[in-house]
Amino acid sequence: MQRKIAEELKLDSETMALFDKKDEDDDFRGPDQGSRDVITSVSATIYKTLMGSRFIIIFLNGSDDEMDMPRFGIPTFQEYDNNKMIWTFSRRFPTVNREYSDIKDKLRHTHLSSIFNNGGNELSSSEFCALLREEADTIISRHPSMTGFDTAMAMNCCLYELFLRYNFHTATKFGWVSHASNYWLCDGIIQENIAKSISSALQQEIRWDCDDSSLDTALEEFMKEPPFMVVKDDNVYGAGQYHWISITSKDTEVSSMQSIPAVTSSFFLTFETADDSKPKALPASIFRHSSNLRVLVLCYCGFDFASPPFLICHGLKFLGLDHCTNDSTCERDQHVDWTALSSLYVLDLRYTEWDEITSQEKIALMYNLQELNIVGFRCWQHYARRLQGQLPCLRRLRVVKPTDQADISTDIANSFVEKTQLEILDLSGDTSMETIPNSMSNVDSLLVLIVDGCDRLKNVIVSDGVFPSLTSFSFDGYGPTYHWASTVELPPKEMRPFVDNKRDIKTCKISLKGCARLENLFLRQLPNLVELDLSGTAIKILDFTSMVVEVSCLKRLFLLGCKQLHAIKWDNSGSTIKPDLELLCVDTRSRSKYPQLFVDKNKSPGFLSVHAVIVDARIARSLYALIEKTSYHVDMNIHVTSSTVYSEVESEGTYRDSISQLRDHVNMQQQDLRSAGQYHDVQLSMVGDVPMQSFPLPPTTMLSRHIEIAQGSHNLESELDDDSPIPTLAHLAKHKAESLHVHDLSTITPLPGEQWRCLKWCRIERCPKIEIVFPRYAWNFDRLETAWVSDLLMARCIWSKGPSQYRGSFQNLQHLHLRSCPRLQFVLPVWVSSFPDLKTLHVIHCSNLHNIFVLEDGDYPEQITVKGVAFPKLTTIHLHDLPMLRQICDVEFKMVAPALETIKIRGCWGLRRLPAVAADGPKPAVEIEKDVWDALEWDGVEADHHPSLFQAPVHSRYYRKKLPRGSVLRYMYGACIGPCT
Q1: Which of residues 194, 226, 258 is at a domain's end?
Q2: C-beta of residue 510 within 8 angstroms of C-beta of residue 533
Q3: How do residues 285-332 score in pLDDT, each as one tens digit?
């Protein structure tokens, strides 16, 4: 709605682009199209554009509710201003005899309402035709791509659908309207060359809403010369030149009709009979003038199958037979000409046991047949051999609810050879089929595959690449759909069974891996389904409230190579996803092959593993929704990156082994990255062959809840935002991650703040634009054990200063390692009186570092400001190339390290203080340049801060060369003018 307003106002392209961005973001958030909100900034732009202007809005409101227009940016309407809005309620397409009093009761801001009840007695014939023409023109204008489709065609399509709506047969329970596009084509209303491209759009546009009780009266009033005639109950057929005729009759006289008029192109006949009575025979002469007949539907009729009376209709395109029987007593021609079958586009057989019509001889005649539907007779394997090499134009094949069992001896290997145009294959209700036959691998053009109600299917496994064009798949445990549409799409919800028939569906695995175009999916009531593999598909939103429902035993879900995946909706209201889910594997990168993961069948229940490589960080919202709702133990290994470092998994063991191999492979790749780093060649050694320990290796062992954020990831800025109203990657990292690895990012965005409840180790490296790693409001790092930071070229601090809400932060910190952060001024603000578990401190190549630990601004207790901050377990300090460092801790407090064993210092020329140590303990070993050692300042023995409390220092054999005073040129000039010998 808001987009339409913006388009009418011709707002700038930058504003219009916000709609696409918002739609994409909403895809990741998960709300349905009808639940999406307005864009506030666009509302403001619309308001500024209209404010101060005089305008009138004509609004076709498609709902029955009054709209809150100011939310869209429309200024409020007052009775005294010059701006007006005229709007209509309910649907755009004509509605017959609708009661509008309920709508009037909902009006709150409407100043004048006018209710026009367009019942049959309110419209003249000319007015109705004018209205219909206007609707037809509107349809065409909204679809400029409908080339070759004019107003007359659109009007006839509308009228034909009204005819079908009026023609609904309670006796057959068949929804004729869903077949509308077939009838438009077969009746000749639209041409074959444009039918495929416009049928779907037309069926969405043409939706008559009729009150059945008053439709008869309405049609009599405003259609003086209707193109169709519908005879029901005890009505008598009135002679006329009707193009479309439908008759529901209780007698064989067909309501006094002797024969179908020559002008008639569509004819529907239903004999109403008792449930146990025999269908009535067709009158012998009914088709004698039907040379123009193109659509024929017969329900509960009897005729001689050996000599059908309609074979004289040589232009027949659509033949539908519902509950028809063979009546050999009918008059029979001596010579039967079956060539009329050659003109058929659609053959629809429902509960009509006429096997001869599908014999190889008859099938061979139907070379123009595009659709074959067989319901309630033989299984599809029965027809497989007959179809071999036949029906080259076949696009839709449905063999539904068979009453017999398959003959396993039947050779069906080549049954779909040469079916190069087959788009829909529906085998619903086949209770004998146990696997999807391999013969279907020849159908490269298949778009829709439906196996609803196939109870005995053990596994549905589609080999990779078998159906390269498949876009839709349906497996409904409730059973076959009641009706189907003739368009290339899955049956809509209203056509599906709504009562569970308690079928015992045996399927335990469904794999549609490699169906690269698959985007529509419907799975329901599959109580034994354990594994679902949708790897390599084009699914955008996997919805467990509408697409995959009632799969309570689902344990494993694979979505590898799903590069178009935006969201997974886990809402349990319709899916009954219980704590049985054990494994989720997601990878949204493009990939040519997929890992073979083997499942550990001995794995204990109540344990969920989530393994994901996601390119767009917004998918983390879906992962968080699952992990947060899971009440039992969860392992997660989530990589936010587009990098191909994590290559394909090729394993031969159990699932647990394969995941272990994946981790080992990632660790090896990371070691390679590290060894090729900027400072891999630095050798930190001291005099006397006493080596200075190299910079420690980074933590690589992924903990049970691991997150990695790396190069190529999209939308990190928004997803690391703490102010997001919905849970994002920031919430997943803060609340769930035990190990965090961030590297090679070009973003300036810091990591999220607030509580970090679970983090045990953190590794940050090669992020050249980050200025602050953790903001001032990040706290609760009470489980953090290792912090490893490297190559942050712009970082000024790791943890920013600011009031801490939790004094227990860093109480478990054991290892702090920093390398190559040239602008770093300090590392960690001191919020506590002690770092009780810190064991090692390594800092190298941080040229601007003044202090490692600094005090926050504010009041501190005496044990910090007077007694200092204790590091009771600190054993190792390595400092290298820190020219600005004067002391490890801020000048306002001292550092106490009673357990210190080793301190190695090199290139820290400004260092003036070392930590205080224990006077009665072992003396720490010291490696340090002599100049630096001699310049150190001491508080004295009584303060446990004296050179005698350390071992004799080991000095480097290398010293800084003394630089000349003054300029180099002056020094060289003095040397040149000296005395000559």
Answers
A1: 226
A2: yes
A3: 888 888 899 999 999 899 999 999 999 999 999 999 999 999 888 776
